[in-house]
Amino acid sequence: MQLHILKAGSESEIDAAFATLVQLQAGGLVVGNDPFFGGRREQLGALASHHAAPAIYGFREFVEAGGLISYGSSLAASFRQVGIYAGKILKGAKPANLPVQQPTTFELVVNLNTAKALGLTIPPSILARADEVIE
To answer: Most buried of 8, 26, 32, 135, CB within 10 angstroms?
Structure first.
């Protein structure tokens, strides 16, 4: 298996990356966790669909926007923890005294509509482990 790393820092570079993906005849795509990509979920999903590229993402929001599958920490749980920390700081806690937190909630989300459009069958073992299956 050969791994190709494609970088994109603008919307046009995303389009170019997908064109390169097609030229390379890549069998799939892993989209990194980056705020830049988070704001372009719809564009990434549409391009993955248009180019029939199975893609995995780090956050469920991509799958809700039409992506195939995601596995990663829960943004909702992370934001909840940020709120808890903000509350502690507003009540007088010193940020330097608060422990560093790591995500503890991870989610596997599968979009069966996207799988069907790509002509893919998701194994039952993956569906059984999924926190959510979008149909």
So the answer is: 8
